[in-house]
Design brief:
heterodimer, A: about 240 residues, alpha/beta, Rossmann fold, Arc Repressor Mutant, subunit A, about 45% helix, elongated, B: about 325 residues, alpha+beta, Helix Hairpins, Heat Shock Protein 90, 3 domains, 7 strands
Chain lengths: ~240, ~325
């Protein structure tokens, strides 16, 4: 993190509420981030395509293109870009849709300034950890599986598929701690940065998804095994 | 809410009636069948003279057909009203989502500024700016709450009490300039022309709401620098106010729908996604309350919108009129 923070961290803030955007821009700038502000969907896509960013703070209800469409576009071009969705919508479907399209975190309005800043910090920390470990070892093979942690593309035998950034981060964390028991709490702390909205069951759901991706028989896992009343362990 | 309950009771009554009709038909047809077929065939020739005398009566047959027709009509009615109900529910849900958004946005902005002021060492100049922004957000919240309350009183058909006589052009002009100032719109972007030269009976604060909503819409739905033109005209009985802008216009198929309660246009090319779908409904209801008319005209997308408002000219009637003539000059 320290070497990373020497270079100015750049955030794309997509918010069409004039007053809120102004307040957020002020606070993020005060925190030392370089902020680019987009006031609608078109401007957001243009700025994203023309510049390099470290993190996106994204509203959902936007003119021209909504936040979901923007998240999808970002994910296609940049699978690892951290996206924090910021929205007044509280319906569960919106939340699920946002997370499925690749938002890494979700904060509902009105929010607390401190919480927003903490989440942004956490997301950037995770990103830099991930990048560091990926540079050391971008491609990992086990069994008939191959994971490219840079573009999140995987192959299992002849089948190709794409991981989401969270799936990749969990996988990376498990592989980093090969043959060691990783508790759910540990995963929550390191992958989700202990987001209070994420329950331990979410970890289990992700594990189920990862087993479907990589195990020959997901009901009898050979790589990602459960350790009773402790957590999970990656073994080859 | 009241309307929702009312239409539910309506559907329920139609449903119960349909069931009664259906039951009656069933009983009639059983009676008809028993009297005409079973008795006729089983008792046979023995009581032949009586059967010929009693049956077959035309009444149950015709009655059955009438009741069956009633049944199908009722079912059609149920279906229609249920359909309306479902549409209304969808609009209502949409409205709730929009209102939630509209309430939460200024609220989160106020909260953000308060927390910023509380946790950071903000320079004096910035502080002043933040207070100003918070006041604008508070104003926005107030307007939204007012418009929701206004809808509630409109639905209860509560009438306006503050009617007074005003000079049409002067007062409307003044009201529009007040709205423009409120939305921080440059007064140069509004041009007035024509002359109505008559008196009209107005509830000033609700007519202010009308032009607040029209000005707000013009701002929200325009991409180029906004130009609003207001023309005054008069004919024998009405004063006419034509409010036009150079905004994105209204698609043809939406012209009539825009005045419906909760209706909103969802279009990729619209530069604004905010709103409750109440604004133009409120506008139309207020104009109706003034015994006037409003119509929207647009040559299509990208070609601006025109709102034509007609208000009856007020002619003083001797002693019976108590309204004071008020000159705002």
């Amino acid at each position: 993190m320290s070497s990373e923070s020497m270079i100015e961290t750049s955030i794309l803030l997509v918010e069409d509420e004039e007053n809120l955007a102004h307040g957020l821009e002020y606070n993020l700038t005060e925190e030392g981030y370089k902020v680019s502000l987009a006031r609608d969907g078109r401007e957001a896509l243009k700025l994203f395509d023309e510049n390099e960013f470290d993190l996106i703070v994204l509203d959902i209800m936007l003119p021209y293109f909504n936040g979901f469409e923007i998240a999808k576009h970002i994910r296609e071009k940049h699978p690892q870009m951290p996206i924090l969705m910021l929205t007044a919508r509280t319906q569960v479907e919106d939340r699920v849709k946002g997370l499925e399209l690749g938002a890494d975190d979700y904060l509902t309005k009105p929010f607390h300034l401190k919480e927003l800043l903490l989440r942004i910090k956490g997301m950037l920390k995770r990103k830099s950890w991930y990048q560091k470990v990926v540079i050391e070892n971008p491609v990992y093979k086990f069994g008939n599986n191959e994971i490219n942690f840079e573009n999140l593309k995987c192959t299992k035998g002849k089948k190709d598929f794409q991981l989401t950034s969270y799936e990749a981060m969990i996988m990376k964390y498990l592989i980093e701690n090969k043959d060691k028991v990783v508790t759910r709490k540990e995963l929550l702390e390191n992958v989700w940065n202990m987001n209070p909205d994420i329950e331990t069951r979410t970890v289990d759901n992700f594990i189920v998804r990862l087993r479907k991706h990589f195990e020959d028989d997901p009901s009898d896992p050979k790589f990602i095994v459960s350790v009773r009343s402790a957590g999970y362990m990656f073994q080859v | 809410m009241l309307r929702r309950r009312h239409s539910f009771a309506y559907n329920l009554i139609i449903f119960i009636l349909a069931q009664l009709v259906w039951l009656a038909v069933l009983l009639l047809w059983i009676y008809w069948y028993v009297s005409n077929n079973i008795i006729f065939e089983q008792v046979g020739e023995k009581v032949a003279p009586q059967i010929v005398y009693d049956a077959p009566s035309v009444f149950p047959f015709v009655g059955g057909i009438v009741l069956l027709t009633g049944l199908s009509v009722s079912l059609v009615l149920i279906f229609r009203h249920l359909n309306i109900q479902i549409k209304l529910n969808a609009l209502y849900d949409n409205f709730i989502a929009n209102v939630t958004h509209e309430l939460k946005s200024p609220l989160s902005s106020i909260q953000l500024y308060l927390e910023t002021l509380n946790s950071r060492d903000v320079p004096e100049e910035k502080k002043k700016e933040f207070y100003g922004l918070m006041m604008r957000d508070a104003e926005r919240l107030k307007n939204l709450v007012n418009s929701i309350l206004e809808i509630a009183s409109m639905d209860k058909k509560k009438s306006y009490r503050d009617f007074e006589v005003y000079k049409a052009d002067e007062t409307i002009k003044k009201i529009i300039l007040e709205s423009a100032e409120q939305f921080q719109l440059n007064a140069d972007s509004i041009k007035f022309s024509g002359d109505a030269g008559c008196d009209i009976l107005l509830d000033r604060s609700s007519i202010k709401t009308v032009f607040d909503n029209l000005v707000d819409n013009s701002i929200k739905y325009s991409i180029n620098p906004l130009k609003i033109t207001v023309r005054f005209k008069r004919n024998a009985k009405k004063a006419e106010i034509e409010f036009s802008d150079n905004g994105i216009g209204i698609p043809n198929d939406q012209i009539k729908k825009i005045f419906q309660k909760f209706h909103r246009i969802y279009d990729k090319d619209i530069p604004n996604v905010k709103g409750t779908g109440l604004g133009l409904y409120v506008v139309r209801e207020i104009i109706k309350n003034h015994k006037g008319k409003i119509a929207a005209i647009s040559e299509g997308k990208g070609k601006g919108s025109i709102f034509k408002i007609e208000l009856p000219i007020y002619v003083a009637k001797d002693k019976s009129t108590k309204e004071k003539k008020k000159d705002l000059k």
